[in-house]
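Intended use. Records like the one below are meant for learning the mapping from a protein sequence to its folded structure. Do not use them to infer anything beyond what is encoded.
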Amino acid sequence: MNSDFIITREEQLLSIFGEPSDLVKQKVGDCLNDAMRTFIGRSPLVFYATVDSRGLIDVSPKGDAPGFVHIQKDGSLLIPDRPGNKLIYGYRNLLSNPGIGLIFVVPNMRETLRVKGRATLSNDPQWLNLLSAQSKPATLCAHVEVEECFFHCGKALIRSKLWKPEDWTDYKDSLLARGLASKLDSPEITEQVVQEHLERSYKDDLY
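Structure written out for the chain above:
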């Protein structure tokens, strides 16, 4: 990497991007407004980022039926956990650093919603039952106190053509199965064996 072109100062960034307009600056708030609450109620998928003790960022997707993230009366959020791979990187990170960043996505909507805040993990039975799905309570929940929130414009989703099925490529292979099989490097654990295991998990262990 040529060190002459490394950006190290905010002034350099501003020389490239310029200042945001007053309208853009005004869209950033410290609590959820009605439009944001409606967006979260429509969202079946949220990505959330946490930071570990080394400063490395982990981003985890959480998804379920639209509105699976519950908005409390005070504007805080309850994000349920469902059965997964048990690595729980994000939850481990929150134990030492409660900072969290969220991006909510709604199918066929170009804009996304960005939320920053501080999260606390809870296994309060009342909350876990409130967040039940398929008659099963949540495994755990993250309680997020919102500190900053704003809508992100739709340019990235427009460029990526994310919501245009006619532009999708229908990949038939499972890169996860291929990657796991090659890493395990066992003649008995083939890509097909791994894929069959994954399909059983997707069918039987969602909730």
